[in-house]
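Progress report, Aim 2. The chain analyzed during this reporting quarter is listed below.
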Amino acid sequence: MIDPFKAIEILTAAENRRAARRGFLKAAGGGAVLLGGASLLSACKEDENYPPTATPTPSPTPTPTSTAVTDNDVLNLALNLEYLEAQFYLYAVGGTGLTAALTASGSGTAGGTVTGGAKVDFSGDPVVGAYAREIAADELAHVVFLRNVLGSAAIAMPNINIDGGANGAFTAAARAAGVIGATDTFNPYSSPENFLLGAFIFEDVGVTAYKGAAPLLSNKTYLEAAAGILAAESYHAGIVRTVLYAKGMSTTSLITATTKISDARDLLDGTPANDDVRGIGSDDDQGLVGSGNTANLVPANVNGLAYSRNSQQVHNIVYLNATGANRTGGGFFPNGTNNPNPSLRVGLS
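Predicted structure tokens for the chain:
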């Protein structure tokens, strides 16, 4: 068995680079591939325009119509993400996904298709299996709840890709991040450990998405409900990160993989100006090992706050495509997310 302390020391050099970046955080006075390859990430960094600057940058083509964001728009944004998470977890624990009745729109339009998905054999790790079943039940409940709140305004599920095959979104993501080789396959359904890595991809993004969307809600009842879902997603993320950290004590490749995933997501979502009071920052995605060989189970800023992502940042990640001006689909959502408001279904340009 590998000495866990020695294993973590091996990862310290990479974390020190991240710690140095975090050192620049200053307390504020007021309020297709998921992870991208090296060239893809460079393009993202050179091309990003968040926050806006005085230098004009290309607009998405076609340019979305400027439309006021309503509470229903925000809830439908959340529903898109819940469809994705629910399908992944339900397939992992039972081999089947959402029923057709739970993927159709509130007005009856049929939902999209799901590519991939399979049952995970948790017999060798019943603890992870128990966690997976609980999370799956929560994600299913989130879908049902949001659809009930939205009623006829609920959007239909878009086409979703959760395939673990050679041409699937998970494999493309893992290859680009350097988690696997250029010709290798990453199947999140092949083992409890791979399942955890697949869950790691989604959970941290969901937490930051809900937190970022909270200020857009005007109805306090909806805001409290969204806070409740955010809390549940935070518990999920914490469970996944904790189990991966514990397993990483003897299987260091798991910690290495999560570091690569978090680093790549961090680059894909741009470099917003730091706001330590609101929980916005350029280093909003962190691995499982902190400076000084300590655990980093909560990716928080200097004030201990979880980070926020806006809709465009979230789409940059889930679309698995950070290049080009027209970021309207790809990756886990091959044809884009469904939302009546065009400003809430595009990525950063």
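The first strand starts at residue 114 and ends at 116. The chain has one domain: 4-344. These observations will guide the mutagenesis work planned for the next reporting period.
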